[in-house]
Design a protein that fits this description.
about 300 residues; mainly alpha; 3-stranded antiparallel β-sheet
Length: about 300
């Protein structure tokens, strides 16, 4: 397995690999491998059937019942109810940035309003999407109010959501460890680590992003289109990366190396298609001229 040259941060001398560590022959500094040996064992990326099973399993698990999404438990006026309905529509349309403005003037003692504000802050349309958010949900300025204003079942739902979001954060940190390998251009090790993450977190878009980025670095002819199908189907992708802008294929927050490779692959594909069309066009013209010449010859023979 080949590795790029790495230099000691203490003295700048080249590092030599010794087992699972890199050692400086000049000053003796050691850099421990960030990966356990077993995580780099040869392994196959999760198959399509297993991916589908995990995706279905996760969707069945993340079903939250919180009651009428626009019912104002403390609201007494139709104006507030109208604001709540409009804010709910903003969320459904993906316009999270408009929710605070829509709910301006609505008291923070209204459960429905605080719920919508919490979802908007996390970039989620509903509680199922909120379950794909990564971080400490309890630190959100609206979380405590939602739990205090909701009934027992609603409070239980949001406390469980906070646990799931914390688990998502831990998974994200584990997946992100592979970025150190990408930065060191150790693409083969990065690919193996990413494959292990895809097997462990098969419906997490971050694991697939790492795998695709590693393969882009490892192989110049790699086409990410197939693996991107898994990335796009991961339910946390929209919450973590956002939607692609109009006319674009990928969200702008995806690793640049992936976007660059996809553009290069499509450019080559379009060039080949253009060349093929030209060849087919030339052949068609030649065949047509040949047929016309043959017909003309037959006509001359008939009338000669």
């Amino acid at each position: 397995m080949s590795f790029v040259q790495m230099n000691c941060k203490n003295c700048g001398a080249p590092l030599e690999r010794q087992g699972d560590a890199y050692v400086c022959g000049h000053c003796g500094a050691r850099v421990i491998n960030i990966l356990d040996a077993d995580i780099l064992a040869e392994g196959e990326v999760i198959g399509a059937a297993e991916f589908e099973r995990k995706l279905k399993e996760q969707k069945e698990l993340l079903v939250f019942e919180i009651g009428d999404t626009v019912r104002a438990f403390d609201a007494e006026t139709e104006v507030v109810n109208a604001q709540l309905r409009q804010a709910a529509r903003d969320l459904r349309d993906g316009k999270m940035y408009k929710v605070d403005e829509t709910l301006r003037g609505v008291s923070d003692t209204v459960f429905a309003a605080e719920r919508l504000r919490l979802l908007a802050d996390a970039g989620a349309r509903d509680e199922t999407e909120l379950a794909y958010w990564s971080g400490d949900l309890k630190k959100n300025r609206h979380f405590e109010r939602v739990c205090a204003l909701g009934d027992f079942e609603q409070k239980r739902v949001y406390e469980r959501l906070a646990e799931i979001c914390a688990e998502n954060e831990r998974a994200g940190k584990e997946i992100a460890r592979g970025a150190a390998l990408l930065n060191a251009q150790a693409y083969e090790d990065a690919e193996k680590y990413a494959a292990a993450m895809c097997a462990q977190y098969p419906t997490d878009a971050r694991a697939w992003e790492l795998l695709i980025a590693a393969r882009c670095g490892k192989e110049e002819s790699y086409d990410p289109s197939h693996d991107l199908k898994y990335f796009f189907r991961c339910p946390n992708g929209r919450v973590l990366y956002g939607d692609p802008l109009e006319g674009e294929t990928l969200p702008r927050t995806v690793a640049p190396v992936i976007a660059d490779r996809l553009r290069a692959v499509r450019s080559k594909r379009n060039a080949r298609s253009g060349l093929l069309r030209k060849v087919i066009g030339s052949v068609a013209v030649a065949v047509t001229l040949g047929i016309l010449a043959l017909v003309w010859a037959l006509i001359e023979n008939v009338f000669s």
